[in-house]
Amino acid sequence: MRTIGTVLGVIIALGGAVWIAQGLNLPFAPGSFMTGDRAWIVLGSVAVVGGVALVMAARRW
After folding, report:
1. Where are the domains of the chain?
2. pTM score of the predicted model
3. CA dist., res. 29 & res. 49, Å (int)
4. Residue 25, by phi and psi: left (phi above 0), alpha (psi -120 to 50) or beta?
5. Residue 9 half-sphere exposure, CB side, CA atoms within 13 Å?
6. Could you give the CA distance from residue 15 to residue 42 in angstroms, rounded to a whole number?
7. CB of 36 within 8 A of CB of 23?
8. pLDDT digits (tens, 9 = 90+) for 1-53
9. DSSP of 12-37
């Protein structure tokens, strides 16, 4: 269970980082309907925090 939680948390955090990059319209982020939309910065931040929290919780089990 520790490994699954860690892997899932890392995937969620990385996905959130991509959302933040697209929301900020960074040049290396792939273009999509999310590009330049500030709502994705907030949602990405929530995903990153949630992913990190999941990794931390998985490490404590």
Report:
1. 2-60
2. 0.87
3. 20
4. left
5. 17
6. 13
7. yes
8. 899 999 999 999 999 999 999 999 888 867 788 888 899 999 999 999 999 99
9. HHHHHHHHHHHHTT-TTSPPSTTTT-
Report how far residue 18's alpha carbon sits from residue 45's, in angstroms, rounded to the nearest whole number: 10
CA–CA separation, 35 and 27 (whole Å): 10
Quick one: tokens of 51?
């992913």
d(CA 26, CA 50): 23
Amino acid found at 22: Q
Distant-in-sequence, close-in-space partners of 48: CB < 8 Å, separation ≥ 6: 12, 13, 16, 17, 20
